[in-house]
Design brief:
Layout lengths: L2 H14 L7 H12 L4 H4 L19 E8 L4 E7 L4 E6 L4 E8 L2 E8 L18 E6 L3 E3 L6 E3 L6 E6 L4 E8 L5 E2 L3 E2 L4 E6 L6 E7 L7 E3 L6 H4 L1
Parallel strand pairs: 1-15
Antiparallel strand pairs: 1-2, 2-10, 3-9, 4-8, 4-10, 5-6, 5-7, 5-9, 6-14, 11-12, 13-14
Helix pairs in contact: 1-2
Amino acid sequence: MSQLFARVVRQAIATFDRKNVASFNKNFSVLKQLVDQLTPCDINLNMDLTTDEAFSRVGKAPVTYVNLMEDEEFEFSVFILRSGFTMPLHDHPVMHGILKVMSGSAMIESFTKEEATGSAGQQLLYDPDAVRIEVVQDEPRLCTNNDESVVLTPTKRNYHEITAVGGVAAFFDILSPPYDSNIPFYGRRKCSYYRVIPRNGESGKRTLERIPPPRDFYCDRGNYEPPDFLRA
């Protein structure tokens, strides 16, 4: 059993428990520091899933999805991308997330929404009917298992695409709350996909236009043997 992974699970429970909202920022920072230390061995990831051979069979999806655990407040998962494949640009509506590369190299390109306010003056974090979204492009990051995790929040780096560079890449993901969870004011949220439109004369600023789910992006599921403490 990985003591570190058990600590990550306990810290995630404390972080995303709505009773602990007053200490959220401190708890989230501790959670990130723990995730920074994770290795494939800690989470009991089947490394056979991360080889070129695993993606060579006929009909294999370009992405393998491994569900580690999920409850109403958060989900843990691993995504394994075929060499050269890009997980298309997508959003994380009103979510916090932590992404840690487990093996290989991944280029992460993120975008942050320009601030927008509603009629009552509150900041609009998510508009399910928006077709175009004004954003600022963040500095791209090439990450390996030796790098710190990457963080997204409801207001920062909430749109991203991920490319496996130079071979198969696998990354561990925490998202809170999970997609489809029902949260106050915003309701249930779906994952949406986008294409990038540059804005003339505005360096670093882009427009994201919502598109249908790309046909070349689909996943199959990888087997997972959870540690004993997750079986309880």
